[in-house]
């Protein structure tokens, strides 16, 4: 674990973390350690790269693909955290408040999908 990631992890463990705090922590980390944000298009490409790393694990641990004998096995949680980090960078760069966005999104899903899922016989055992 790098010094930078230890710094962030310690801060999060000590304080617990909300999405709002995490956005602020990511911004502080970028400005203090990352120097500045990559531009949005670069970060979008990096996000796709990180999602690909996550997909690689999912295909091998939960899907039908297998690991090469020599392959180093990355940690699922760490790859999920990479995705969240870059997504949070993009939110900060685009002026998105993730707390508000998550709340609005859950409200939207709850209103839209309640009956739809309740009536989906494929979801029943
Ligand atoms: Mg990664």
Task: Provide a descriptive summary of the structure in words.
The chain has 125 residues and is mainly α. It contains 5 helices and no strands. Helix 2 packs across helix 4 and helix 3 packs antiparallel against helix 4. It is globular, with a radius of gyration of 18 Å. The mean pLDDT is 91. Magnesium ion binds next to helix 3 and helix 4.
Q: How much strand? A: under 5%
Given the structure, what is the number of helices? Answer: 5
Order of helices and strands: HHHHH
Q: State the shape.
A: globular
Instruction: Give the structural class.
Output: mainly alpha
Radius of gyration: 18 Å
N-to-C span: 43 Å
Main sheet: strands, sense, barrel? none
In round numbers, the mean pLDDT is: 91
Low-confidence stretches: none
Helix content: over 70%
Bound molecules: magnesium ion
Number of strands: 0
Task: Summarize, please.
This protein is an all-alpha fold and about 120 residues long. The protein is about 75% helix and about 0% strand. It contains five helices and no strands.
Features:
single chain; mainly alpha; binds magnesium ion
List the helices and strands and how they pair.
Layout: H1 3-15, H2 19-34, H3 40-61, H4 76-94, H5 98-118
Helix pairs in contact: 2-4, 3-4
The chain binds magnesium ion.
Magnesium ion binds at residues 50, 53, 79, 82.
């Amino acid at each position: 674990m790098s010094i930078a990631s230890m710094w962030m992890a310690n801060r999060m463990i000590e304080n617990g973390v909300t999405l709002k705090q995490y956005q602020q922590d990511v911004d502080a980390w970028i400005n203090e350690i990352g120097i500045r944000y990559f531009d949005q298009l670069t970060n979008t490409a990096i996000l796709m790269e990180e999602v690909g790393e996550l997909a690689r694990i999912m295909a091998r641990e939960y899907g039908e693909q297998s690991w090469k004998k020599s392959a180093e096995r990355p940690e699922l949680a760490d790859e999920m955290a990479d995705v969240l980090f870059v997504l949070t960078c993009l939110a900060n760069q685009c002026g998105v408040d993730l707390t508000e966005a998550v709340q609005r999104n859950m409200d939207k899903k709850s209103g839209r999908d309640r009956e739809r899922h309740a009536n989906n016989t494929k979801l029943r055992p």
